[in-house]
Design brief:
The complex is a heterodimer of chains A (325) and B (704). Chain A is an alpha+beta fold. Chain A has a single domain, classed as Uridine Diphospho-n-acetylenolpyruvylglucosamine Reductase, domain 3 (2-Layer Sandwich), CATH 3.30.465.10. Chain A contains 12 helices and 12 strands. Chain A starts with a strand and ends with a helix. The longest helix of chain B has 27 residues, at 479-505. In chain B, the strands form 6 sheets. Chain B has a 7-stranded mixed β-sheet with strand order 3-5-1-12-9-10-11, sandwiched between helices. Classes of the chains: A alpha+beta (325), B alpha+beta (704). The A-B interface holds A 1, 118, 120-121, 124, 126-127, 138, 141-143, 145, 229, 231-236, 239, 303-307, 309-310, 313-314, 316-317 and B 50, 97, 100, 571-574, 612, 616, 618-621, 623, 625-626, 630-631, 633, 635-639, 688-691, 693-694, 697.
């Protein structure tokens, strides 16, 4: 591991300046479950590591009429256990689906949203891949079972977050602090495709840090649910996951919002499927048609055609369970 | 020599005795190799090849040597590297971080050569050579046959013919390979994570060209090996040389990636199989042409036609080299590969003939033990409820499958042990075996205490050091059948000697002294002499008796079968093993708990092999891209089935090894259960959700 300067500001306001001065060579360190592994592998070689653990007020969960606010430094485990979050069952499910209990005890909400891809070419210092500034995405002709089926090119990662798809489905906003002050963006707009930026997964500029997320209060009729499929229940990132929010009355779905994990380089808002299902009874055939429409543009790689089928099936499952729950 | 006691007379053996080292392990005070601390200890690291094949032209270590904290450097370990992860150079430094930094300062000039990491390509004549200058990439081959295969297939009413493929599996012990080397004068003390302290000592003596009695190998506790840790390996020799050069002890533990690349794996297997039977279910012929790779090593052969009786059979095998780390024996080498292909083919043939797969096996399996085991297993798993293959629809599909296995597992006649009885009544046994995690500490102590009719706490086992009497490597399921008879015989000899000395002290003859439960009785006077008093009467003389392994207390040859019940999630393709019924013979079960633990562990390995584990080598670079525990997937706690283990009682055969036998039958059983559940058969492992989902989808399309 490369030697680095270690700073631990107490005030979040100090962070943008530290980041701006360090330029691209700074690394934000909260739970460390992702960052430390990258540093050990040599994929991230920061000159400055900014420890966010000592920032006061960085970890908080607050609920009011407007909705739920979660500080970026809040532990995933704390979200799962917080009373306030229980009004957002889909969120609790998504956070609970992250890693293992040990990882949730370390990892934070902000870190989960900003974690880097798990692509094995990206993660190995032995591959000088496109996302790290190289010329090639090795997934195109390599082993690409876990890679994206839609929205790829020139890089075919999937975004690994479980929390992000649910935040998008819940129409959450993310608070970002930079040198120019703070700004709020829709969770959906927080993420970018490789076409927009092949080196970063989010719109965060080099002086910016995520400070909190806000989930608007949900109408009583709205239900939320997160379904994650992973190869091993014990510990794995999603092969495909789906977050859904909708009202169901007289068997009819309305206000449908759907976001997928594991299928695209960013959490994938499934607007076509949403439209197709809005106002319908969501019969098995209707769900299948909606998902088929959503992934009509999918371009699976050699080894991940299964994800198209899985994405369809999981939407079926998500709606079935949403009805039951 | 007395036989083992009757089962009903045993107080420790054949019982659920908890591990004598359990408390140490739970408390974290058991010293594993990683935990060994020595004065002035340095940390060693090996620079490994980034190329799958290259000549090493030069290694410049000057900058690394100049780095503060670096105490010893070994330049250019070999002239040609043949896989990514092969040894290039090594350093020892005051911290792991400095050692790692030093590696990055070593400048290596390579002449990069063409390579191959695909065995299908490697076996072709025009393939790049794995080893420079060799005529081809072919390793050992063999052919064997019996009867007339052509005639056999002519007699067959149904024939199944397929290519079965299993990729490379990696041992993945949770404790990686590694050692600590300390020179004391001319003597080398080496704490090593090894499956054989004696084997490692001999090998180190050859490698270092020093006498064997200058080498002392110590393995007190170990976090698994599964066949990958028959030392010494190059890291041992590198570490010893670094320690010699530095003049202080060096610890060299491999990290997970090195563990995946450089210290062993289970060879791949490609088996083109043809199998035929008559309409009444009688097998007529078997033919196989196989190849497989053990990387730069060998050992990809498979023991076909495995356990079934074929009047006519013919097999032909070819080992193929690729530019990948060398294979090492892995829990029943060759058998799981043979099992998957054979059991899959048997099931498919049974289906073709319209015969129940279990009935088909019973008809063709000549082993009498397994004949009984099939009945027990079928009852336990509810075989009668098995539905016809592919008959289910819906979200959750249930399947059942069966598979069988065989293994040797006899004792090694060279094994020796010394039992000491001290004047204060203390008792111990010294035997140079090792506990690779399976409970050897406990069974050694149990046999001694049982034989001397003492409590377990009254005896002290000494194992895991090469300075103790010779015992074999823990491999081939030979440890229990080697060690238990030997300890028993040494205990018998010590007791005889004790009685002899006691007779002298009490001026009588040994035949007039009886012994039971810590008390000697002078049969003429009826005087009772408690254990401690008897030992004290020896006038300061300790009893020390050595014995060698003897016949009659152990056997070789096991039979086992396993039944798997799986649930396939038709929406995700996930296979969950719900229940695994194992019926296994291993002669006299020495310890019920550790034996069950062996079977459970073996089943976990089977689940990993069939459903998860898959070493992936990048075709363009030769790099293993899942050399970590995130992407090389071994089953975790939530992937465990309900374990249902039954030992088929054949205690009269004595002790038989159990490490490997139960690691075989479940492979075919699980694969067959999947086929039964979804109506599609996989000819390739692992059976992962992506493959299952595509298969289910394809099947749906076919039927709709």
């Amino acid at each position: 591991m490369k030697p680095f300067q270690y700073v631990y500001p107490k005030d979040i306001k100090a962070v943008p300046k530290i980041l701006a001065e360090a330029g691209q060579t700074a690394l934000l360190y909260a739970g460390g479950t992702d960052a430390l592994a990258r540093m050990k592998e040599g994929v991230s070689q920061p000159d400055v590591v900014v420890n966010l653990k000592e920032i006061s007020g960085f970890s908080l969960i607050r609920s009011d009429k407007k909705g739920l606010s979660i500080g970026a430094g809040t532990l995933l485990a704390d979200v799962v256990e917080s009373e306030e979050a229980q009004d957002y069952p889909g969120l609790v499910e998504a956070v609970k689906a992250v890693g293992t209990i040990q990882l949730r005890n370390m990892g934070t909400i902000g870190g989960n949203l900003c974690q880097r891809p798990r692509c094995w070419y990206y993660r190995s210092a032995r591959f000088d891949c496109l996302r790290k500034g190289g010329e090639t995405c090795f997934a195109i002709y390599g082993d690409n079972k876990y890679h994206c089926i839609i929205g790829g090119n020139p890089c075919f990662i999937v975004h690994p977050s479980d929390v992000a798809p649910m935040l998008i489905a819940l129409d959450a906003t993310i608070e970002i602090l930079g040198l120019k002050g703070s700004r709020w963006v829709k969770a959906e707009e927080f993420y970018v495709t490789p076409q927009q930026d092949p080196y970063n997964e989010t719109i965060l500029k080099s002086d910016e840090v995520v400070t909190s997320v806000h989930i608007p209060a949900q109408a009583k009729s709205l239900k939320s649910h997160y379904v994650k499929f992973r190869e091993r229940d014990s510990f794995d990132f999603a092969m495909v996951s789906v977050a859904i929010v909708a009202s169901i009355s007289d068997n009819t779905l309305s206000n449908v919002r759907i976001a997928y994990g594991g299928v695209a380089p960013k959490p994938w808002r499934a607007t076509r499927a949403e439209k197709a299902l809005e106002g319908t009874n969501a019969t098995e055939q209707q769900i299948l048609d909606a998902a088929t429409g959503e992934f009509a543009q999918a371009e699976p790689l050699e080894q991940n055609e299964y994800k198209v089928i899985m994405a369809k099936n999981l939407l079926k499952r998500a709606i079935r369970e949403l009805r039951q729950g | 020599m007395a036989p083992w006691k009757e089962l009903k007379e045993m107080t420790l053996l054949n019982k659920e005795v908890t591990r004598v080292d359990g408390a140490l392990k739970v408390a974290g005070t058991a010293i594993y190799t990683y935990d060994v601390q020595r004065p002035g200890l340095l940390y060693g690291r090996i620079l490994r090849s980034i190329h799958p094949h290259a000549k090493v032209l030069s290694v410049d270590t000057s900058e690394a040597e100049a780095l503060k904290g670096v105490k010893a450097v070994l330049g250019k370990i070999k002239d040609e590297v043949n896989f990514v992860g092969d040894d290039v150079a090594a350093v020892a430094a005051v911290s792991e971080e400095i050692a790692q930094k030093a590696l990055s300062l070593i400048k290596v000039e390579y002449d990069v050569l063409p390579f191959t990491v695909r065995e299908q390509q490697a076996k072709k004549e025009d393939a790049p050579r794995v080893f420079s200058g060799r005529e081809n990439n072919l390793g050992r081959s063999n052919e064997n046959s019996e009867g007339d295969v052509e005639k056999g297939f002519q007699e067959a009413d149904a024939i199944v013919e397929h290519m079965y493929h299993m990729n490379v599996q990696v041992h993945t012990p949770l404790e990686s390979h590694g050692c600590v080397c300390e020179w004391r004068g001319d003597d080398l003390y080496m704490w090593d994570s090894t499956q054989g302290v004696h084997g490692t000592r001999s090998g180190m003596a050859r490698a270092l060209e020093i006498p064997e009695n200058q080498i002392h190998v110590i393995t007190h506790h170990m976090g698994g090996g599964f066949g990958s840790k028959f030392g010494p390996k190059s890291y041992n020799v590198v570490c010893a040389r670094l320690a010699k050069k530095a003049g202080v002890p060096v610890k060299l533990m491999l990290d997970r990636e090195e563990e995946m690349l450089a210290v062993g794996n289970r060879p791949s297997s490609w088996q083109k199989i043809k199998i035929g039977a008559k309409s009444d279910g009688t097998l007529t012929a078997f033919e196989m042409e196989s190849f497989g790779t053990g990387g730069v090593g060998g050992g990809a052969g498979v023991p076909q036609p495995y356990i079934y009786h074929f009047p006519n059979w013919k097999v032909k095998h070819q080992d193929v080299h690729i530019n990948a780390g060398a294979a090492e024996p892995m829990r029943a080498p060759g058998h799981p590969q043979a099992n998957f292909a054979m059991e899959s083919a048997m099931d498919e043939l049974a289906e073709k003939l319209g015969i129940d797969p279990l009935e088909f096996r019973i008809k063709n399996d000549p082993n009498e033990t397994r004949q009984q085991e099939y009945k027990i297993g079928a009852k336990k798993c509810g075989w009668d409820n098995r539905k016809p293959s592919g008959s289910q629809t819906g979200e959750k599909l249930i399947g059942m499958g069966v598979g069988s296995g065989t293994w040797g597992g006899g004792g090694n006649r060279r094994t020796e042990a010394i039992v000491n009885i001290y004047p204060d009544g203390a008792v111990d046994v010294k035997i140079g075996t090792q506990d690779i995690g399976v409970g050897t500490w406990t069974i050694v102590a149990s046999v001694l205490a049982e034989e001397l009719e003492l409590d377990l706490a009254d005896v002290k086992p000494f194992i895991g050091e090469s300075d103790y009497p010779w015992a074999p490597n823990s491999g081939g399921s030979t440890t229990a059948p080697s060690v238990t008879p030997t300890v028993k015989l040494a205990a018998e000899a010590a007791m005889a000697k004790l009685i002899e000395l006691l007779a002298e002290a009490y001026e009588t003859t040994p035949d007039k002294i009886s012994y039971a439960k810590k008390t000697f009785t002078l049969t003429e006077s009826g005087e009772k002499i408690p254990w401690k008093k008897a030992c004290a009467a020896l006038d300061g003389k300790a009893v020390s008796e050595k014995a060698q392994w003897g016949e009659g207390l152990s056997s070789s040859g096991t039979a086992g079968c396993q039944f798997a019940e799986v649930e396939v999630d038709a929406e995700t393709g996930r296979v969950k093993v719900k229940r695994l019924v194992a019926v296994q013979d291993c002669g006299l079960v020495v310890n019920m708990l550790t034996a069950r633990s062996q079977v459970n562990g073996a089943i976990i390995g089977e689940i990993g092999y069939v459903l998860f584990e898959n070493r992936l080598l990048d075709n363009d670079t030769g790099i293993m891209q899942n050399a970590d525990l995130e992407n090389y997937k071994i089953p975790g706690a939530l992937e465990m089935p309900e374990f249902d283990v039954t030992f088929y009682d054949e205690h009269e055969r004595g002790v038989i090894g159990l490490g490997e036998p139960p690691a075989i039958p479940g492979v075919g059983a699980i694969a067959n259960a999947v086929a039964n559940a979804i109506g599609v058969r996989f000819y390739e492992l692992p059976i992962t959700p992506d493959r299952v989902l595509l298969a289910i989808d394809k099947r749906k399309e076919g039927t709709s």
